[in-house]
Every structure is written in structure tokens, then in C-alpha cells.
Amino acid sequence: MVEAENTVVVELSLNGTHKGPLQLPSGTIPATEKTMQTPCCDVFKIENGKIKSFHYYTATTIFLKQLGVFDIMSPKKKNENWVLTGRGAGAALSCFG
């Protein structure tokens, strides 16, 4: 955890087992039963002793890799309903069909 003026930054890990459908803006990933341990970061802006804003960042590519989403998209296990668009941090996983 780092604190400076009116900002608090917390580095943490999102841990668990994917046991149910995961609804994303681009579609739903069915339960994979895979475990994950994904690095994350929370940023709090404080004003007058209260949280003014909160932003949450996660390593999405690590998270999706641990759930096996990229395995679903591999040529050996091609699922034509999933499309990865963009590059780097702007990439998005889309589901259609």
C-alpha cells in the first residue's frame, strides 16, 4: 500500500476458483473450474476523510489466460463465437452468435 497526499494505492491479488458464469460486457464465459491468482491494483482518491473516487485495475490478460479463455480460442480448440479485438491494454474479448 502506498499513500501520498489524497491518494491511496493498494496492490493486491484476485484469487479464487471460477465456479459460475462470468458476465463480461462482451459476453459470458461459462464456469471453467480453474483457479486464478491475478495481480490487481486499487486506487482511492480521498477528500475530507472520505473516498471521493475508486478505480480498480486488473491484469486482464493474465486473468483470462488462467481461466483458459485463450485455450478456447487456440486453433486446436477453435470456438468461432469468441473474437479478440485490439492490441495491448485496449484489447477486448467479444462473444457473438
Mean pLDDT: 79
Which regions have little confidence, pLDDT < 50, spanning 5+ residues?
86-97
Q: From N to C, what is the helix and strand string?
A: EEEEEEHHEE
Overall structural class, as computed from helix and strand content, comes to mainly beta
Total E-strand runs: 8
For the largest beta-sheet, the strand count, sense and barrel status come to: 4 strands, antiparallel
Radius of gyration: 17 Å
- Percent strand equals over 45%
The coarse overall form would be elongated
The end-to-end span amounts to 43 Å
Q: What level of helicity do the residues show?
A: 10-25%
Structural write-up:
- This protein has 97 residues and is mostly beta strands.
- Helices cover 11% and strands 52% of the residues.
- The protein has a four-stranded antiparallel sheet. Strands 3-4 form a two-stranded antiparallel sheet.
- The chain starts with a strand and ends with a strand.
- The model is unreliable at 86-97 (pLDDT under 50).
